[in-house]
Every structure is written in structure tokens, then in C-alpha cells.
Specification:
Layout (H helix, E strand, L loop, with lengths): L10 H14 L3 H30 L4 H18 L4
Helix pairs in contact: 1-2
Length: 83
């Protein structure tokens, strides 16, 4: 199902859309649809990246830091005197 909608664009943008649609041999409607789909995909990817970065932004938990310190100390004991 498709829905018709009306939008207003600057004359200069409209001319660019007309030229590109003609070059690509697609309708203006199809070109606008492609552009909006790409914009939405880019926006959703950016939001996902922001969420992922927020999860990893706070650094390791205190328990993980303590565990790493114990492992380093244990590793030092294992290899001490070998090098």
C-alpha cells in the first residue's frame, strides 16, 4: 500500500531532485522514498551506536578491576624469574 503526501521544497532542491531522478530514470516519488529510507537507516544506526557507546562508556566494574589486578599479580608470580 502506498500513501500520497505533499511536501514543500526549495526551488533549487526541486531542480536537483528533477535532474537526479531523470539521470537515474526513476520517478521523483521513488527518489524521495529512497532518500527517506536511507536517512532513517542512518539515523537508526547512529542511535544504536550511541546506545552501544553508552553501555561501554562507564568503564569496567570495580569487581572486574579487582579481578584484573589479582590476575596480573598471579601472572607475575608464575613468570617471575623466567626472563
Amino acid at each position: 500500500m502506498t500513501v500520497k503526501t505533499a511536501i514543500s521544497v526549495e526551488d533549487s532542491l526541486f531542480e536537483k531532485v528533477e535532474d537526479l531522478a531523470r539521470e537515474l530514470k526513476v520517478s521523483r516519488s521513488h527518489l524521495f522514498t529512497l532518500a527517506v529510507q536511507q536517512f532513517i537507516e542512518s539515523y537508526e544506526n547512529q542511535r544504536l551506536l550511541e546506545k552501544i557507546n553508552a553501555v561501554y562508556d562507564d568503564g569496567p566494574a570495580p569487581e572486574e578491576v579487582a579481578w584484573r589486578q589479582r590476575m596480573r599479580a598471579h601472572h607475575r608470580q608464575l613468570v617471575e624469574g623466567q626472563w
